[in-house]
Design a protein that fits this description.
Layout (H helix, E strand, L loop, with lengths): L4 H18 L5 H16 L2 H38 L2 H5 L10 H19 L1 H18 L4 H19 L5 H10 L3 H27 L8 H8 L14 E4 L11 H6 L3 E4 L31 H47 L9 H47 L2 H10 L2 H8 L10 H9 L7 H16 L8 H15 L3 H16 L9 H8 L3 H26 L1
Antiparallel strand pairs: 1-2
Helix pairs in contact: 1-2, 1-16, 2-3, 2-14, 3-6, 3-13, 3-14, 3-15, 3-20, 5-6, 5-7, 6-7, 6-10, 6-13, 6-20, 7-9, 7-19, 7-20, 7-21, 8-9, 8-18, 8-19, 9-19, 9-21, 12-13, 17-18, 17-19, 17-21, 18-19, 19-21
Keywords: Membrane, Transmembrane, Transmembrane helix
Protein name: H+/gluconate symporter-like permease
Length: 551
């Protein structure tokens, strides 16, 4: 099948989105326009093009909602722990290891790689985000640095080799007609070269952003999650005018000379639940009655002091309990997953099942923590507010990705039919796969050029947001092109696997499981993908050269 006008329009949309991303601009509008125009050209109906804008985002939401839900559950758990100050106490043991930003960076990368290698990153990242990320932030590691370390080590280095589960090598090997172990061995080496290179470059990028270990780092990071709808960034700041100041027109010189006080307003997770906030303004908590005095007011103040002491002692006791219970609960979950992997005592959990266990466990811990702090009756309200905080955060931070993912889903034959409103059984074209297949004829027989050609094709396949969906194609190309260039098809298949998984598996594009990493570290997902681009591409270039010259 030859390329149609729809293929060229879709390709133009892909290039437009990539260009706008490189230019550091928001890509939502280009994605919406590209979706409408591509659907219009595919069907010949402008009405269908308009409908595709909504349908594409809807399909993307249905496919990615499990990621949103995990982010919401983990955020709700952090909010419940924060209400009793168990979050700060929970990270205390890690302070002995994470003494500074660099040690925190190394620990995050090593632990993420180890857990993700056995259980895949999707269930591993929320676990790390709940326990290790707060400790790393307190140690002085910037939130973006934590996100990049987790993404590179887990979503990239561990998943691209998939050396333990060997799902990815199996897909590549089957399509290439070679042994799975041969692909797995090469992929392991290439993933380590790519990952270590990327981690070193990320470290160089972070060298000026490390901070001194302090509780203020953790408090500032947690205060960035809001429980109320946040206005646009430029409206976040309000001008504070002194009440004593007369509001009269000022000359331009006066406006230049007089400073303007700017106040940042932040509402942390859990600020609306779990008892009275620790700080505030304008309320009676901030204006305690004067000490001593006579009459009923003085007596009430004296009676309130012992009650406050009892409440503080109770919160401190709960803080100690849950700072132990939460890590033990997640540790028990890891033990259960290991038993399922190496024995027949319990069912094996992989992929979505493991992620569901993480989300369900987080939800149970939210309910138990809220009931312990607020009592059974008030917990009915506070638990719902914690979950609402988590969902609001998830959609505020990640919702912008849906229109972008919808456009790329339009190029996937599995989703295009639903987006365009095709009836069941009516086959939709796979625009992205067709474009990739058509480009294989332009790859020359030189081993180095061929390796880079297969790498680029793998990266193009990964644009769909699934690191594994392009592996049958890259494996087939490896099996067909390898013998003609005198290269081992297993090596070519591993190179294509690197491109596809590092891109779509959750490092280079925002409409992937990179959403989970951004969610648990509270950083903008598109900015995270942009920051990861240079280190990861440099690592892929080096690993591809290694594959071409030494395998």
């Amino acid at each position: 099948m030859g390329l149609t006008p729809a293929h060229w329009v879709y390709l133009a949309g892909v290039l437009l989105i990539i260009g706008v991303t490189v230019a550091r601009k928001n890509v939502v509008v280009p994605a919406l326009v590209a979706t409408a125009v591509t659907a219009w050209v595919m069907t010949g109906s402008p009405v269908t093009g308009i409908q595709a804008i909504f349908n594409a985002s809807l399909i993307a939401a249905s496919e990615l909602f499990n990621i949103f839900l995990i982010i919401a559950m983990v955020t709700a758990l952090l909010g419940a722990l924060r209400a009793m100050k168990a979050d700060q106490r929970m990270v205390t043991p890690f302070q002995k290891v994470m003494r500074g930003g660099w040690s925190a960076y190394a620990v995050l990368a090593v632990v993420t790689y180890g857990i993700s290698l056995f259980f895949w990153p999707t269930p591993a990242v929320p676990l790390i985000g709940a326990i290790l990320v707060p400790a790393a932030i307190r140690a002085g590691l910037p939130a973006m640095g934590a996100a990049m370390a987790i993404a590179v080590a887990g979503q990239g280095m561990a998943l691209s080799s998939d050396y333990v589960m060997q799902v990815a090598p199996g897909l590549s090997a089957t399509a290439a007609g070679v042994e799975g172990s041969a692909v797995a061995d090469v992929a392991l080496v290439l993933s380590l070269v790519t990952g270590i290179t990327a981690l070193v470059i990320v470290g160089v990028m972070l060298r000026r952003h490390m901070r001194t270990p302090a509780e203020a780092n953790l408090e500032e990071w947690e205060a960035g999650v809001v429980a109320e709808p946040r206005p646009p960034r430029r409206l976040l700041r309000r001008i504070s005018v002194s009440p004593a100041r007369e509001l009269v027109p000022a000359t331009s010189a006066e406006r230049i000379a007089e400073p303007i006080a700017v106040v940042e307003e932040k509402v942390p997770v859990g600020a609306t639940v779990g008892g009275p906030p620790s700080t505030g303004s304008g309320g009676p908590e901030d204006n305690p009655p004067p000490p001593g005095g006579s009459g009923s007011d003085g007596g009430q103040a004296d009676d309130a002091a012992p009650a406050d002491d009892v409440a503080d002692a109770r919160i401190e006791r709960l803080s100690k309990i849950f700072s132990i219970v939460v890590p033990i609960a997640f540790l028990a979950m890891i033990v259960y997953m290991v038993l399922g992997k190496v024995t027949d005592l319990v069912p094996s959990l992989e992929g979505g099942s493991a992620a569901a266990l993480v989300g369900g466990l987080a939800a149970i811990l939210v309910v138990v923590a809220a009931a312990s702090l607020d009592g059974p009756k008030k917990a009915l309200q506070s638990t719902g507010e914690h979950l609402t905080d988590g969902l609001v955060f998830a959609f505020r931070a990640m919702g912008v990705v849906l229109p972008i993912a919808g456009f790329f889903f339009l190029g996937n034959a599995d989703f295009a039919g639903k987006i365009l409103g095709y009836e069941d059984g009516q086959q939709a074209p796979g625009l992205l796969v067709d474009l990739v297949t058509a480009s294989e004829h332009f790859i020359p027989g030189n081993p180095i050029v061929m390796c880079f050609g297969v790498l680029i094709i793998g990266m193009m396949c990964g644009l769909e947001g699934s690191g594994f969906s392009g592996l049958p194609l890259t494996g087939s190309l490896a099996g067909a092109l390898g013998p003609h260039a005198g290269m081992d098809p297993a090596t070519l298949a591993a190179v294509g696997q690197m491109g596809s998984v590092w891109t779509g598996g959750g490092v280079l594009i925002a409409w992937s499981s990179l959403l989970v990493v951004a969610g648990v570290t509270r950083v903008p997902v598109i900015e995270l993908a942009r920051k990861c681009f240079l280190p990861v591409v440099a690592g892929l270039v080096l690993s591809t050269l290694v594959a071409a010259l030494f395998f």
